[in-house]
Design goal:
mainly alpha; Glypican_CS
Length: 368
């Protein structure tokens, strides 16, 4: 009653043993593919971690670098500006990690929060009544009167270009892991399971426990079983090319590191522009939002914060160099994996599975 290992000679196999053999080949094939995938997956996961760590380090530096602008140049508003700065960099981090947000909305939200502070602490430093309604009116007015001129839009343009490649790379790396996980758990067809049993275990039914499959026979069986996986070859090569393009984009003119550290200068230019146009802005705001209460003299010391040093530039340079080196190492490794899906059958038929150094091997029906 054998279904797979039918043979003219007497056999020591039963139908139940054939079923056990089918379960065994499914398990073995999954383990074999997982072993092949391990190094590739390990490299991608390792790069995702390294990329995120280096990126977070750059982000922290850029945030401290930006905060120090307020602490040194605009001390009257430094304490209140801390939260909008923090929110801006949190939004940038979330954008790169793939959340449904845009660079433009993050930057414009930041400038919406910044304008009430610039207006009440720098342009009209005597304002005492900064109620919620008045603050909200200033936020909404910012969108109409554009107090920061072209600088807010320039910041959107520059950061969108540089952060886009980082966001795409982050998503592409996650996609790579998804593809590898899918190939690991691809179900074997019944025909494939039978072919693998015929190749690996049917010789046992004849008492030939030491004989192993012929190389050509193994390749034919594995290629048939893994046809759906090898179909990924063209797309995988395209995927590697895309990774290469994205890493080059990140290192090219729209450099992530330069863009992040340039945020401080862009904000400074925007604030200076608003201060230069202070009288016109005040006239417009008074019409739209009314005239707030004012007091003579200086602001209270509550709004002055001690100047703290920004993170040392050396930390940034190290993070920058680290990110560049990791990019290079990773992309060189990935380029070597171009043929990963095309050569999977050859790699599974390598090693102990087949008979290489002997004149006899199993061809699926007999010893040859």
């Amino acid at each position: 009653d054998l279904q797979i290992c039918q043979h003219r000679a007497p056999t020591c196999c039963t139908k139940k043993m054939e079923e056990s053999y089918q379960a065994a080949v499914r398990r073995e094939r999954t383990q074999s593919i997982q072993a092949l995938n391990f190094e590739l997956k390990y490299m991608i996961v390792g790069h995702i971690t390294a990329f995120q760590e280096a990126f977070e380090s750059l982000l922290r530096f850029a945030e401290n670098h930006t905060s120090s602008l307020f602490e040194t140049a605009y001390r009257p508003m430094a304490k209140e500006a801390a939260e909008p700065v923090k929110e801006l960099f949190t939004d940038i981090s979330l954008y790169i990690l793939g959340t449904e947000t845009t660079v433009e909305s993050a930057i414009l939200r930041f400038f919406d929060s910044l304008f009430p502070l610039v207006y009440s602490r720098l342009i009209n430093p005597g304002i005492t009544d900064l109620s919620e309604d008045y603050t909200e009116c200033l936020r909404l007015t910012r969108q109409d009167i554009n107090p920061f001129g072209r600088y807010s839009k320039n910041m959107v343009t520059e950061l969108s270009k540089s952060l886009w490649a980082s966001r795409m790379l982050s998503q592409a790396l996650s996609l790579g892991i998804e593809v590898i996980n899918t190939t690991e758990h691809a179900a074997l067809t019944k025909e494939c399971s039978k072919a693998l049993v015929r190749m690996q275990y049917c010789p046992h039914c004849q008492g030939l426990t030491l004989i192993r499959p012929c190389v050509g026979y193994c390749l034919n069986v594995m290629r048939g079983c893994l046809a759906s996986v090898s179909e990924l070859d063209a797309q995988w090569r395209e995927y590697i090319s895309t990774l290469e393009y994205l890493t080059n984009e990140m290192a090219a003119s729209h450099d992530l590191e330069i863009a992040l550290t340039g945020i401080r200068n862009s904000i400074n230019e925007a604030i200076l522009h608003a201060q230069l146009n202070g009288p016109q802005l005040s006239a417009t705001v008074d019409k739209v939002c009314g005239q707030p209460k004012q007091q003579e003299g200086n602001l209270s010391s509550d709004n002055i914060v001690p100047v703290k040093e920004a993170t040392e530039t050396r930390t940034f340079v190290m993070a920058h160099a680290s990110l560049n080196n990791k990019r290079r190492e990773f992309i060189n490794y990935m380029k070597r994996s171009r043929t990963f899906h095309a050569s999977i059958a050859e790699r599974l038929c390598d090693g102990d599975l087949v008979m290489r150094d002997s004149s006899t091997c199993w061809n699926g029906e007999d010893v040859v």
